[in-house]
Design a protein that fits this description.
Layout lengths: L10 E2 L10 H8 L12 H14 L3 E5 L2 H12 L4 E6 L3 H4 L4 H6 L2 E5 L8 H7 L9 E8 L12 H14 L2 E6 L2 H8 L3 H5 L4 E5 L10 E5 L1 H13 L8 H13 L4 H15 L16 E5 L7 H9 L3 E2 L1 E2 L4 E5 L6 H16 L1
Helix pairs in contact: 1-11, 2-11, 3-10, 6-7, 12-14
This protein binds pyridoxal-5'-phosphate (PLP).
C-alpha cells in the first residue's frame, strides 16, 4: 500500500498539537485589533499577556511563537554559560529541544530520576553542587507540570511547593514548564497561580490542549520579562501584527480551559477500554490528564506496525519506541472517535 492509498485520517490521537482552530476561534482572530507587537503596540497581544500574568500570579508576561522558545529564553535569562540546570531525566527540554540549553545558553544539565517526571525536594538538594572553584554553578531547577514523558502526570501542589522552597533555600532560580499546566489545573482543582506563582518564571502553551494554532506565553517578574524581551529579539521571536494569532489565545483562555475535563474523560475512556485488549498493558490509575501511554509488547507486534495498521483504518496513534505507544486526546476528539480508535486497535492487534 503506498501512502496515497491510505484512507482519510479521521481520528488523530497523535498529539494535542494536531487540533485545528474552531470557527469561533477563527472569527475572534479575524476581528482582532492589531499593532506592532515588538514595539508593545499590539493591544490583543498586550491583553493576552495581562491575562496570562494574572492567571499565573506573576507581574508580567511575554508572548512567544512557541513553548520551546519559552523554555529557551527563560534558561538564557536565568543562566550564564557554564551554569547548570537541574531537571528530570525525562524533561522535554532535555529530549526535544535540539540541545537548545547547550546551544543557546551554554549550560550544563544535571538530571534526576523522578517518579513519572516528578522529583522531590531532597533530590534537588542532592543534585545541587557545593561552592567550588572547579564545579559548574548550580543555577536553576526546572519543573514540568504536567510531565509529558511521565504520561501527563500531575505534580501534587505540596511537592511543587517543597521544590520551590528548597530552590530558594539553596539560592537556585526555579522555572515551570507549564506546556500543559492547565490540564493539571482542571484535573486537580489547584489554581494556576497556586501552581505557578512560587517559580521565578512559568509559561503555558497555547497550541496544545487550548487548541490555538500557535504560541506560548512566558511570565515572571517585571525585571525577568524585560530581560526576556532582549532574548526574544535575539532569538528571532519578536513579531509585528501578532494580535491575529494572540486573539486565538485570548479566546482559548475564555472558552477552552474548563473543557479540558472532556479530554481527560476521553483519555480515561480509551485507557479503560484498551486495558481489556489481550497483549496491551497499562495502568489506568496513572491516567491523570489527556495522555495514554500503553505497552504493546504482549501483542507480538512492534508499535510502528500497529501504528501502520491503525492508520489504514483512518486512526493515528504515535509510537514512542518498539514497545510503547502514546494516544493524546484533544478538542477535536469526541467519545465516538475514542470508541472508533478502540475498535481499530482491537482489530489491529488481532488481525
Ligand atoms: C510541547 C512541549 C514543549 C514545547 O512547546 P512547543 O510549543 O511545541 O515548542 C515544552 N515542554 C513540554 C512539556 C511540552 O509538552
Amino acid at each position: 500500500m503506498t501512502h496515497d492509498d491510505l484512507p482519510p485520517l479521521e481520528v488523530d490521537l497523535y498529539s494535542d498539537t494536531v487540533s485545528r482552530p474552531t470557527l469561533a476561534m477563527r472569527q475572534a482572530m479575524m476581528a482582532a485589533e492589531v499593532g506592532n507587537e515588538q514595539a508593545g503596540e499590539d493591544p490583543t497581544v498586550n491583553l493576552l499577556c495581562e491575562k496570562v500574568a494574572a492567571l499565573l500570579g506573576h507581574e508580567d508576561a511575554v508572548y512567544l511563537p512557541s513553548g520551546t522558545m519559552c523554555n529557551e529564553i527563560a534558561y538564557r535569562v536565568h543562566c550564564e554559560p557554564g551554569d547548570e540546570i537541574i531537571l528530570d531525566e525525562t524533561s522535554h527540554a532535555l529530549h526535544y529541544e535540539t540541545g537548545g540549553p547547550a546551544a543557546l545558553s551554554g549550560v550544563m544539565t544535571r538530571t534526576m530520576a523522578g517518579d513519572r517526571g516528578r522529583f522531590s525536594a531532597e533530590q534537588v538538594r542532592g543534585a545541587t553542587r557545593g561552592q567550588s572553584r572547579h564545579a559548574p554553578i548550580s543555577r536553576l531547577v526546572s519543573v514540568e507540570n504536567t510531565a509529558n514523558l511521565g504520561g501527563g502526570a500531575i505534580w501534587p501542589l505540596d511537592q511543587i511547593q517543597s521544590v520551590t522552597a528548597v530552590a530558594k533555600e539553596l539560592g537556585l532560580k526555579s522555572h515551570l514548564d507549564g506546556a500543559r499546566l492547565l490540564n493539571a489545573v482542571v484535573a486537580s482543582g489547584v489554581s494556576a497561580a497556586d501552581y505557578a506563582s512560587g517559580f521565578d518564571s512559568a509559561w503555558i502553551d497555547l497550541s496544545k490542549g487550548l487548541g490555538c494554532p500557535v504560541g506560548g506565553v512566558l511570565a515572571g517578574s517585571r525585571a525577568f520579562i524585560d530581560r526576556a524581551w532582549r532574548f526574544k529579539h535575539q532569538f528571532g521571536g519578536a513579531m509585528r501584527q501578532a494580535g491575529i494569532i494572540a486573539a486565538a489565545g485570548v479566546y482559548a483562555l475564555d472558552h477552552h480551559v474548563e473543557r479540558l475535563a472532556e479530554d481527560h474523560a476521553n483519555a480515561r475512556r480509551f485507557a479503560t477500554a484498551i486495558g481489556q485488549i489481550n497483549g496491551i498493558k497499562l495502568d489506568v490509575s496513572t491516567i491523570d490528564t489527556n495522555m495514554v501511554y500503553f505497552d504493546v509488547s504482549g501483542t507480538g507486534l512492534a508499535a510502528p506496525e500497529i501504528g501502520t495498521r491503525l492508520r489504514r483504518q483512518g486512526v493515528r496513534i504515535g509510537d514512542t519506541n518498539d514497545n510503547l505507544m502514546r494516544a493524546v486526546t484533544h478538542i477535536d476528539i469526541t467519545e465516538v472517535d475514542i470508541d472508533r480508535a478502540v475498535a481499530a486497535l482491537k482489530d489491529a492487534v488481532s488481525g
